[in-house]
Amino acid sequence: MITFFQEREIEKYLWEKKISGKLLKEIKDHMISQILEIQNDRSIGFEIAFEKTKLNWNKDLAMVRKNPFSRQKITKIAYEIDKIQNRNLFLRSMICAFVFAGFLMALAFLFNEETYLSINKAIKRTFLILPLLMLGMYVRQKRLASKNKQNNVVVNNFIHPLLVFGILIVMDNMIDYPNTSSNIIFNFVNFGSRGEVTTYVFIKIVMRGILLLALYLFSFFSLIENIKKFKQDQKIYN
Fold it and tell me: pTM for the full model?
């Protein structure tokens, strides 16, 4: 049987490894089960069983860099979880970006040029809100991080929101847009390479738009997940 103070000792060890929230609870439960199993099989005390359990977890709890853009270190198990989450978020972002590009092409096919351009302008105005929304979410995340500092919560902005803005500016300056860039999709969908836009220019600009939108969405979804993580940890510790 694990006593209250022994359980606190396990939590303190995980705390020092920057483990918190649901992950702390899950690892702690696994460690308790392993400690009890070792004690039952070998009839040894808690301290020795705990040290043997630490050795079993040594690889998973080794400290690694959170991501290539950060000096902060987290446990390998937390890194692997974040890597899977990032992969899923980026896949979701790419799917959303391709769906949006398909949506614009469908609009160009269904409506005349005047209606299409009006809808396109309305969409662009809506997208102007996204960077401001992301900055607001990032400020909210920082405030939650300050409030939850004692809870040792680790979040993972694999791509920093401000870095996304920097990538946007650089890529915008690297690409030469045709004079008809405002209705490039409409022209190509309706006239193909026979119109003012070549196939190469069309593919280059559309792929650039998909990539940038995916990066925006990836950063946006990451901020949502981080804020959600803070809220979950607040419920656990409060």
Answer: 0.77
